[in-house]
Amino acid sequence: MPLPDEHLTYPHRSYGMDQDRYAWRPATERAPIAWPNGAALATMIVVPIEHHPLNPPGKPFKHPGAMVTPYPDLRHYTTRDYGNRVGVYRILDALKAAGMKATFPINADQLERLKPLVEAILADGHEIAAYGLSTTHIHWGGLDRETEAAWVAEARARFDAAGLQPRAWLSPARQQSFATLDLIRAAGFEICLDWEQDEVPAAMDTEAGEIIGLPLSNELDDRALTIDRRQTEDEWASQVLEAADYLAGGAGRFGGRVLGFTLTPYVTGQPFRVSALRRLLAGLGAMGVWSATASELA
């Protein structure tokens, strides 16, 4: 079936990458990065704290992890809630035991509800990032700019009210419109975790100045691999370790690089997956990686 004419004529279709946030650059032409203490690899562990309501609107699409069965899907709802009340504390314990730091993006509408968790995260020396307003406020190209700007402003205001000043932003479902980077930079966010265009921090242009994109691997997402692709937790942990070993091995040629991956509380925080998590963190520690938060990398 032939493609429709608009496939090649949409407004952002142009020579090159169809976006002008950064220049096209092969890996062989970027300046090598030196991480602290000569580490060959930095790891950025991201623990997304998200709330999934019983009645998600599903527009423009359902957020990954949203309800599955007809209303009220109490089985999946309570599993997600379990992650933020129980599973996440297993992840905090495992990180502490391994001496590793993480970045915790949190939906702005959950800051008050999850205040004890926010306090526990900060007490352990981790970083809080903004995770949009909620899982039902998904940024996309069909959203008018005024509405999207209001969502970003409200998210910033809720973090301000909680006494938090996050530098990093993760969009709900990691979905953006063409204006999202401009709007979040204008709201004071300096780091974006949505893209994975490289294996090093990458400066991107916005209307309000430069924003740093940090690579967060979608291909190593714990929820996607264990739930969507039905891999075992041991297979997922081995894939992360394999990626780390490969990237560290290339430090002599390319310099230091970043491996970013997620630990989703209602997935990896399950008791039968904690042993795989501990093995993963111990393996990374044995490689001598630099465990860094988003702000430390940017």
Which class do the helix and strand fractions yield?
alpha/beta
What is the typical, i.e. mean, pLDDT? 96
The CATH topology assignment is: TIM Barrel
Order of helices and strands: EHEHEHEHEEEHHHEHHEH
Q: Globular, elongated, flat, extended or rod-shaped: what is the shape?
A: globular
Determine Rg (CA atoms, Å). 19 Å
Strand residue content: 5-15%
The tally of domains stands at 1
Q: Which CATH top level class fits? A: Alpha Beta
Helical content, roughly?
25-40%
Number of strands: 9
Tally of helical segments: 10
User: What is the fourth-level CATH superfamily?
Assistant: Glycoside hydrolase/deacetylase
CATH architecture classification: Alpha-Beta Barrel
N-to-C span: 45 Å
Quaternary organisation of the protein chains: single chain
Low-confidence stretches: none
Biggest pleated sheet: 5 strands, parallel
Structure characteristics:
alpha/beta, TIM Barrel, four-stranded mixed β-sheet, five-stranded parallel β-sheet, 298 residues
Q: If you had to describe this structure to a student in words, what would you say it looks like?
A:
By secondary structure, the protein is an alpha/beta fold. It has 10 helices and 9 strands. Helix 2 links the parallel strand 2 (about 100-105) and strand 3 (about 125-130). Helix 1 (about 75-100) packs parallel to helix 9 (about 275-285) and helix 6 (about 235-250) packs parallel to helix 9. It is globular, with a radius of gyration of 19 Å.
At a glance:
The protein has 298 residues and is an alpha/beta fold.
